[in-house]
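Usage

Read records sequentially. Each one opens with the input sequence:
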Amino acid sequence: MKKMSKLEAVLWSIAFPGFSQLLSGKYIKGIFFVILEFMINVNSNFNSAIMYSFLGEIRKAELVLNYQWLMFYPCVYMFAMWDGYRSAMPAEEKYSYLPFVFSAYFVTVGLMISPKVTVFNVHPGPVFLPMSFVIPGILVGFLIKWILQLREKKLQI
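and closes with the structure output:
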């Protein structure tokens, strides 16, 4: 069983959900995440949407996507990432899940509103807009984590 740093666990999970679990010897959980990711990816046509988005063909990306399936992707992706991060922690870190939870939530919202959003006369589409929502999700998650930890310190005094 390989011991990973938190950063390494997150980076392997970014590469593919389930990889950090497989590398740390949690084979059942890792295989479960890989199967879930594969199933959602195939049923949502996500790889085709990514390809069209990178080619600048946003309308084709929107048409090929199955949004009902893709709505599961941010939660599975962020949960696998958090699980890898949590497993790599030497001790329980309170509220470590908040940046991951809020990122999943914000990316899902970004996905839902992506057909309607235009930024500076550009339509970012169903891949780039949700990806950009990771940043505010992480920031909100860290802010709430910080507030809760600050509140707990004040209550202990």
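Summary fields computed downstream for this record:
- The chain has a mean pLDDT of 91.
- The chain has one domain: 6-156.
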